[in-house]
Predict the structure of Alcohol dehydrogenase-like C-terminal domain-containing protein.
Amino acid sequence: MNVIGACDTEDKTSILREKGAFCTINYSKKEVVKSVMKETDNQGVKIVFDAVGGDTFEDCLQSISPEGCIVVLGFSSRKIPQILTSQLLPKSCALIGVSLTHYQKMVNETYRSTVQEVIDMYLDEFIDPHVAEQFKLKDVSNYFNCIESIAFKIKLLIF
């Protein structure tokens, strides 16, 4: 499996390459659809994970291969895309929304086992998440100052 990662800065594309991405696309400088089609010999990708939403969702829809799947994880752009179901038909593709909050609240055992699997993968060094910054619990208020900065977009784990 080859991973094509798309993000909005060169720094982030460097991180994606360090983490093993086959190809990276800085969508503030390159056209995503053209780049994906070039890298896939005009086949498109089998699966897309979209956590951005907004205009990037349209790129996802155009980059998906026939019978592919788009997994919507969130809307960091704060723009929720609108889609007509007829847009899925030409490629017979699927659209799935996944919410960790749903699993945490409604299917708690699935959530707990999934979180444990991720922790185990980390402990087994199967995954290597990027750590942009670390804070001690007593300094967690500094984290909130950082996330207010547009350049600093990460998730927070407190150990």
